[in-house]
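Try this one yourself first.
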């Protein structure tokens, strides 16, 4: 067994659960701010650095407002995410609209609010021109390098991904955008997810800077910025090592000095759109053991389900699981000292799907009914990916403030929420149709 920290004691969780029913997510504001400052400090060696937090990772306005305070923008993939940014004070060119298969009305809204449009396909150039009845001054394109760049298990191979323009399409897109009146240009890519290799990101930046030189030489276009995308991973498994912001930033700066400085008279700004590494380690799903079952395996049933956190069921992703008050005895290496109460469990929810499991054959302290079970590293792509299958109600979100106070930043769904979009009044007069017998 191994150990990962959790910022609250058993007594605190017991007190919280009286007011806020489990399951719930809780985020650590102090840790998020500290991490945000660390990232900004490291990457500020690059001209014009800005982090556009990928809203899809944790779409809560309280979290977005915290990150706005730390100088972050927002990367949005839909109109509601743009609105969330606006509600949080993130507006104009602090919003990057990185969308795919986008409806015209969403481009119109984003453009009207001054967001940067990041086009995902060559056909979107004319689509945007028609939708806007004109063309934006500033435009960005998402590049898919195909086999030139290796992907990973989560996002897949770039050449099999639906995102972005090919190299040939990229040059065609910039030329057409320039013809339509664009005068400011950006370049974006996103080729990995949850990547822990530091050098991977340095080489991605090199790829973009080299393209910037070619665009200048072939089209007389000077990029205003490159956006390396996100993809920086976190050590979900206690044995993994976190990425080194300073190493990556300094490595990219060396590439910048080698490629950009000799070829351009002005700076090219450096942007990113991380989310997982920003909030992921500082959010936890807290659930309660409500059943145990002993058949061919030993099971612990909790009151959370895959509908609250789908990553383990969807990807087979590892999330560390701990039991509040029973996992704080460690050796000098941070490993939990084994004892006679250690058991091997599948920790499962109540969804009618066999993949509804948070942990499979996991060695844990003996779990009693009523124990609080914590799923770690759930601060990104957790509550955001929740769903209502089986009529499950999505859980709420809490925030541990820097002064120690705990506030609710999203309430748990109730039955009225679940039924709100159904027309029961119409149902009362709905005759249906008689079966046709032949």
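Now uncover the answer:
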């Amino acid at each position: 067994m191994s150990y990962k920290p959790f910022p609250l004691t058993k007594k605190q969780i017991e007190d919280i659960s009286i007011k806020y029913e489990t399951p719930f997510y809780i985020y650590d504001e102090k840790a998020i701010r500290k991490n945000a400052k660390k990232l900004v400090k490291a990457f500020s060696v690059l001209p014009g650095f800005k982090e556009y937090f990928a809203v899809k990772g944790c779409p809560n306005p309280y979290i977005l407002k915290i990150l706005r305070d730390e100088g972050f923008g927002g990367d949005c993939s839909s109109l509601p995410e743009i609105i969330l940014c606006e509600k949080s004070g993130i507006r104009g060119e602090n919003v990057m609209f990185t969308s795919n298969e986008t409806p015209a009305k969403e481009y119109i809204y984003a453009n009207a609010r001054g967001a940067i449009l990041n086009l995902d396909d060559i056909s979107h150039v004319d689509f945007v021109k028609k939708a806007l009845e004109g063309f934006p001054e500033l435009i960005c394109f998402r590049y898919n390098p195909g086999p030139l760049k290796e992907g990973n298990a989560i996002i897949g191979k770039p050449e099999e991904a639906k995102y972005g323009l090919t190299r040939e399409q990229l040059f065609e897109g910039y030329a057409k955008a320039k013809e339509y009146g664009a005068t400011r240009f950006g370049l974006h890519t996103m080729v990995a997810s949850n990547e822990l290799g530091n050098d991977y990101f340095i080489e991605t930046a090199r790829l973009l800077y080299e393209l910037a030189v070619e665009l200048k030489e072939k089209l007389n276009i000077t990029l205003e910025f490159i956006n390396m995308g996100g993809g920086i991973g976190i050590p979900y498994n206690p044995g993994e090592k976190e990425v080194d912001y300073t190493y990556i930033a300094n490595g990219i700066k060396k590439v910048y000095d080698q490629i950009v400085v000799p070829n351009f008279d002005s700076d090219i700004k450096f942007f990113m759109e991380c989310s997982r590494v920003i909030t992921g380690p500082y959010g936890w799903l807290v659930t309660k053991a409500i059943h145990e079952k002993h058949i061919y395996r030993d099971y612990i049933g909790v009151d959370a389900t895959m509908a609250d956190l789908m990553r383990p069921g969807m990807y087979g992703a590892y999330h560390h699981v701990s039991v509040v008050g029973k996992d704080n005895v460690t050796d000098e290496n941070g490993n939990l000292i084994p004892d006679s109460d250690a058991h091997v469990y599948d920790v499962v929810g109540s969804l009618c799907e066999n993949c509804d499991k948070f942990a499979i054959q996991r060695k844990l302290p003996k779990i009693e009914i009523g124990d609080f079970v914590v799923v770690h590293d759930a601060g990104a792509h957790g509550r955001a990916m929740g769903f209502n299958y089986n009529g499950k109600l999505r859980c709420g979100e809490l925030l541990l403030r820097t002064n120690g106070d705990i506030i609710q930043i999203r309430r748990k769904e109730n039955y009225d929420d679940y039924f709100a979009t159904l027309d029961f009044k119409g149902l009362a007069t709905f005759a249906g149709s008689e079966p046709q017998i032949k």
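Discussion: The CA atoms of residues 203 and 323 lie 40 Å apart. Residues 280-419 form a domain with the Lyase, Ornithine Decarboxylase; Chain A, domain 1 fold (CATH 2.40.37.10).
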